[in-house]
Every structure is written in structure tokens, then in C-alpha cells.
Design a protein that fits this description.
Length: about 100
């Protein structure tokens, strides 16, 4: 049986925060939580291997979403790689342990 992809709800449950807090943090609003909470969120993302869904924008409808700007990195949980989440305002690197 194939396991399902981790969801924002899964990340929120592990990090102990709301889905809205995670979404805002990943979209560059670092003021929504303390650095310690942000680290808990990044750790939960790395642990689960969560990848934000790709959101499409129609031409002329504003800046691209987080997933459109960049979502690179290794998909192998055991290789110690990093995953980069980038917006115009900030770049967050998640290092897998």
C-alpha cells in the first residue's frame, strides 16, 4: 500500500501550531511566531518531508506563490540534504537531520 503525502494538517499537529501559522511563515511572514516556534515548524516539515502544493496563478494576477518560486532539495530523507523554501521576502532552509 502506498502511503499518503504529508499534509499541512500533519505538520501543524507535530509542531503544535495552527495551519494558518505555518502557511503564513512559509509565505514570508516571519513575525507570526517566535524563532523557537518557527524552528519547531521547520523541524516538523523536515521530519515529515512535507512539500507545499504548487499553486498556479493566472497571468497578470500577482506574484507567484511560494511553491512556484522555488522548492528544491533532496527528496531522500536519509541523505542529510536541505530543502529550500523561497519567497520574495525571505529564504528558509530546512536541514534534515
Amino acid at each position: 500500500m502506498r502511503s499518503r503525502k504529508p499534509t499541512l494538517e500533519d505538520v501543524a499537529a507535530i509542531a503544535g501550531v495552527s495551519q494558518a501559522t505555518i502557511s503564513r511563515l512559509l509565505n514570508g511572514h516571519t513575525e507570526v511566531c517566535t524563532p523557537e516556534t518557527a524552528q519547531r515548524i521547520y523541524d516538523a516539515i523536515a521530519t515529515l518531508g512535507y512539500v507545499p502544493p504548487v499553486k498556479r496563478t493566472r497571468p497578470g494576477r500577482g506574484k507567484p506563490s511560494l511553491a512556484e518560486t522555488s522548492n528544491t532539495g533532496s527528496e531522500n530523507e536519509n541523505d542529510g540534504g536541505t530543502t529550500e523554501f523561497r519567497t520574495e521576502e525571505t529564504t528558509s532552509l530546512i536541514t534534515r537531520k
